[in-house]
Amino acid sequence: MKHHDAAGELAAKPSSASAASSSYQLLEEIGRGRFGTIHRCYSPAKNAFFACKVVDKSLLSDPTDRQCLNNEPTIMSFLPPHPHVLRIHDSYDSPGSLSLILDLCLPISLHDLIVSEERLPESRVRVFMVQLLGAVAHCHAYGVVHRDIKPENVLLVRGGRGVQEEAEEDGERDYSYDSSKIGEGFTPEEESEEYGVKLGDFGSAEWLGEGGMADGVVGTPHYVAPEVLRGRGYGEKVDVWSAGVVMYAMLAGFQPFRGERVEEVFDAVCRGNLRFPTRVFREVSGEAKDLLRKMVCRDVSRRLTAEQALRHPWIAANGGGQRLVN
Q1: Rounded CA gap, 71 and 204, in Å?
Q2: pLDDT tens per residue, the chain (326 residues)?
Q3: Which residue, of 72, 102, 132, is where some domain finishes?
Q4: Residues 19 and 37 grouped into a single domain
Q5: What CATH number is associated with residue 61?
Q6: Which one of the listed residues 90, 93, 103, 148 is annotated catalytic?
């Protein structure tokens, strides 16, 4: 694998990245987004690997993007650690950039996995949903609503615990992303390991406190809850709807509410007619479909909470309901 001297390149600029490089050795680039890059980094003090997300503030022309940038580290720092919530370990701010030291995850998301495999086995979906619902319940227990749960914001990890293992154990792993592997699914070596998920990207999250309400149209069209689109206040159950749509997408390979234009998607969401095409759901259990109906439920008063979803027979029968971390 080709490496470049990321530490030297970033430290040469008066930025948050150069401040981060005083405590972390910045290694190869493992990801790139609209507003910056993600590098693998190593902490000599902690003898562990992390991810360093460097955001270039000059690229944030939209006020909403700037608000999300400020919001994400605040919310993530507020939440106590949870095995399935992406954790922020350090942050370095400067006028031109923001560097966040995060759990080191695999350079692919749940979205990539769904695109690769189209439909995931129900047994794997159950494992992922136990972990995702555990993360959502944890956020809600501390008054935080995520508001943008979608497969792109659910990151894959090894063993359900992230990949910042001790350096001597994990120093030679290759974290670069070869997109050609996605079409082939996991490699034989990867299939022998247990995978898990972590919920990330808290830029749209909001702290509600006890019994509080949020407002504003926030989220992603195919995954947003109908009450968000109605222009009134809404609560934490918007995350349960979104998590249910993620579960549907894992089982079916597509979202339940679709359209050619965004307006058509919004109309489908507001109608909330959840269908299970026989050609796709023939092999899916009745218990899984029952959970979907109770999560992707237009009537908020009848929709399950995240903790109630964790106690649903489809999950509890597998011992999943016992995995909630307070």
Answers
A1: 7
A2: 333 333 333 333 445 556 677 789 999 998 887 778 899 999 999 999 999 999 888 887 777 778 788 888 888 888 999 999 999 999 888 888 889 999 999 988 999 999 999 899 999 999 999 999 999 999 999 999 999 999 999 999 986 444 444 333 444 444 433 333 333 344 433 443 468 999 999 989 999 877 789 989 999 999 999 999 998 899 999 999 999 999 999 999 999 999 999 999 999 999 999 999 999 999 999 999 999 999 999 999 999 999 999 999 999 876 554 443 33
A3: 102
A4: yes
A5: 3.30.200.20
A6: 148
Per the domain annotation, does 2 fall within a domain?
no
- The question of whether 290 is a catalytic residue gets the answer no
Give the separation between CA 316 and CA 185, rounded to whole angstroms: 28
Domain span at residue 135 reads 110-323
Assess whether 154 and 52 both reside in one domain.
Answer: no
**Total domains present in the chain:** 2
CATH value at residue 186? 1.10.510.10
Same domain as 252, residue 142: yes
Q: Which residue has the tokens 């954790």?
A: 87
Same domain as 152, residue 44: no
